[in-house]
Write a structure and sequence with these properties.
By secondary structure, the chain is an alpha+beta fold. It is built from 13 helices and 20 strands. Helix content is 35%, strand content 16%. The two termini are 16 Å apart.
């Protein structure tokens, strides 16, 4: 459960009358003040806390009629229901859940005076220049108390542009676009744009109870939104929305309990976020640790019967010399001896440090001329780019293919065979994949062909070790933007185990990595 889920659950319990211990407060507890009320959340001239929700609603209606008669507020002409009454009677079908007996259902339009704002004409400087009246947009609503504004308007704009002047304590709600349901309580007298609706609560309605009720309804309002690029909920939809009305004392107690719990929800959010980050990072770190242990000779024990990697290296050198003599590969310029300072970590005595170029042939790829359709139309052969490769994966298909002409002119038909090892060395450095198909590839990828490879042992060892080894030395610099070439690749340092140990290392890796993937799930 996320912190938002927990908060939503608490708000739902609150509006159903289930948050307080023992359910709804007995009316005998009325009159006890709430200590959780900020200055912007104090109800004006509160009536007796002893009244039930129904009695409170009757009092609100009577006071509202009086204010209308005195011309202090306008009569709500919002139409609802077939009868055309200002606000339709509530039917049983509308009621979403049961509430305590001392509560009652009513509509938002009955418990406060609602009004939207406006945007004075931008081209008229008389409306903005030297303005002193705060003018709030929905992006400034902060789900708390808003006491500052980014823009100000003039008295002239207030008088001429149908703007509502909101009082301290009014509840604000966003009606348009991505901000639908975002809230604030006015901490200063202010105006708003037309995307924001404000409510001045009638006596007997605690504005912070309304605030938290609206917060509990955010997803409901989002579902009610209509429109294309910028859906909206409109003032009419808001005032028709049902709200459960508790006695005033219970409104205060509910708010106090919510605000008592909110700091714990915030702490839970921090802890939950850290746990999620850990759960996401741990499998990756675990996999990296396994591979790190593998290339350092710490993943499996060294066995005397495995022999020494130096014997394997002599065998590799002999095979390389044979291939050169037979004209199957070209002779490279000798690689410099490895110095002690170059070695990044200690390895077992039966291992040895070797340069990559002494262990395998590296075949770079090419990209046929894009402008020449003859190379790309009627594609016959798979052509691999880095996007076709996955970390420690297999290339089973390619997004693009090349023609017979490209195969002949660019590669002389020397295609990389199925089961060949590929590694990227530009842009994404050190990604390894094994071909599950015959394919050519671009110049950001090399095909790796070990000079000696019994049962793909060295290929598989490279498959798992190269992604880590390429984060060292020159390859580490490449990740920061440096371009690598065949020479720098040839000088990559490889910790070489005996062949039998390579096989056991790969077996252990393939035993452990699936467990890391399960941790991700």
């Amino acid at each position: 459960m996320t912190a938002q889920d927990l908060k939503n659950s608490i708000l739902q319990l609150a509006v159903e009358g289930k948050l307080l211990k023992g359910g709804s407060l007995p009316l005998a507890t009325a009159g006890k003040p709430s200590s959780a009320t900020p200055s912007a959340g104090t109800p004006r001239n509160a009536p007796s806390d002893q009244k039930t929700g129904a009695e409170l609603l009757q009092q609100i209606k009577a006071e509202k009629e009086k204010l209308i008669a005195e011309g202090k507020i306008k009569k709500d002409t919002t139409k609802a229901g077939a009868s055309g009454r200002a606000l339709a009677e509530i039917t049983e079908d509308e009621i979403p859940f049961d509430i305590p007996e001392s509560w009652c259902w009513c509509r938002l339009g009955e418990i406060g005076d609602w009004g939207a704002g406006a945007t004075p004409q931008r081209g008229n400087p008389d409306y903005y220049q030297n303005g002193t009246i705060p003018w709030i947009k929905t992006g400034e609503l902060n789900n708390g108390i808003v006491s500052e504004a980014c823009e100000f308007i003039t008295e002239k704009a207030l008088n001429e542009c149908s703007l509502r002047y909101n009082r301290v304590g009014d509840v604000l709600i966003a009606m348009y676009g991505a901000t639908i349901g975002k809230l604030a309580i006015a901490g200063i007298e202010l105006t708003t744009n037309q995307a924001c609706c404000a409510c001045t609560c009638h006596n007997g309605v605690y504005n912070k109870y309304l605030f938290y009720f609206l917060m509990s309804q955010k997803s409901v309002f989002e579902k009610k939104a209509e429109g294309g690029a910028q859906p909206n909920i409109s003032r009419e939809k808001i005032v028709k929305t049902l709200i459960p009305l508790p006695p005033l004392a219970e409104q205060k107690a509910i708010v106090a309990k919510i605000e008592e719990l909110l700091p714990y929800i915030q702490k839970y959010d921090v802890a939950h976020t850290k746990l999620q980050e850990f759960n996401k990072k741990f499998p990756v770190d675990m996999q990296k640790s396994i591979l790190q242990q593998a290339i350092m000779g710490k993943l499996v024990p060294q066995l005397k019967e495995d022999g020494n990697a130096k014997d394997l290296l002599e065998k590799i050198k002999a095979q390389k010399a044979r291939l050169i003599a037979e004209g199957k590969i070209k002779k490279d310029k000798p690689l410099a001896e490895i110095t002690e300072d170059e070695k990044p970590f200690d390895i077992p005595e039966s291992w040895c440090w070797v340069k990559f170029g002494d262990l395998c042939e590296r075949i770079t790829g090419k990209t046929p001329e894009r402008a020449n359709d003859i190379y790309w139309n009627k594609g016959k052969y798979n052509w691999v780019s880095i996007s076709d490769m996955t970390d420690y994966g297999f290339v089973k298909e390619t997004k693009e293919s090349i023609s017979e002409e490209a195969s002949v002119e660019y590669w002389n038909k020397r295609i990389s065979q199925k089961n060949s090892l590929l590694m990227s060395f530009k842009l994404t450095v050190g990604r390894t994949s094994i071909l599950d198909i015959d394919a050519y590839h671009n110049e950001a990828i090399i095909t790796i062909k070990p000079f000696v490879d019994e049962e793909y042992a060295i290929r598989n060892y490279f498959f798992y070790s190269l992604p880590l080894l390429t984060k060292m030395g020159d390859f580490k610099d490449a990740i920061k933007g440096r371009t690598l070439n065949k020479d720098s690749i040839a000088n990559l340092l490889i910790p070489l185990p005996p062949l039998a140990e390579q096989k056991r290392i790969v077996e252990k890796i393939e035993e452990l990595l699936p467990l890391c993937k399960k941790l991700v799930k």
